[in-house]
Design a protein that fits this description.
This protein is mostly helical. The chain is 70% helix and 0% strand. The chain is built from five helices and no strands. It has helices spanning 3-27, 36-42, 60-88, 92-118, 127-148. Helix 1 (3-27) crosses helix 3 (60-88), helix 1 packs antiparallel against helix 5 and helix 4 packs across helix 5 (127-148). The longest helix has 29 residues, at 60-88. It is elongated, with a radius of gyration of 16 Å. The termini are close together. The model is unreliable at 151-158 (pLDDT under 50).
């Protein structure tokens, strides 16, 4: 698994999740707003946003930090997924299913453990929408991995 493949899978899947989440949060009643999701992620560092109500107020620094954090986490999680899938060498359909299962696992860990502890502003997001976003993230990760991931390559050196 080379760096290029990890970046393609991680960033590609992160864009699917981000675009869905941002668009839906902009249109659902009491949503966080279009920029709300990445700003909520950035609020992990920009602490004065904690306690804000929806729509989450615009903050350029939190937006940039949130987008960076979102993509960085997606790439890290793509590495973990890729190492696991590379060892299993499943079919394309199984890789899609494993990606979706990975998305559910990531959602559960983030929503129920990490977010309440370090960034409660994220709990302003619609849980069902975020769950669907993570399913789509996992599906995209599985599809992209099938297309660009070499199941027999385990070296991160390239």
């Amino acid at each position: 698994m080379d760096r290029r493949r990890i970046l393609i899978a991680g960033i590609g899947a992160s864009l699917v999740l981000a675009m869905w989440e941002m668009i839906v949060e902009a249109v659902v009643p009491d949503g966080a707003g279009f920029f709300g999701p990445p700003i909520a992620i950035g609020a992990t560092i920009v602490r004065d946003l904690q306690g804000s109500a929806n729509p989450i107020p615009f903050n350029a620094v939190a937006l940039v930090l949130g987008l960076m954090g979102h993509m960085m986490n997606s790439v890290i999680l793509a590495v973990i997924f890729g190492l696991t899938v590379s060892r299993l060498a499943p079919s394309a359909a199984a890789t899609l299913g494993l990606g979706m299962a990975w998305g559910v696992a990531v959602f559960a860990a983030m929503w129920f453990v990490v977010v309440p502890a370090i960034d409660p502003l994220m709990l302003n997001l619609n849980a069902a929408v975020l769950f669907a976003a993570h399913l789509m993230w996992g599906a995209a990760l599985g599809v992209i991995w099938t297309r660009f991931g070499a199941t027999s390559e385990l070296s991160l050196a390239r």
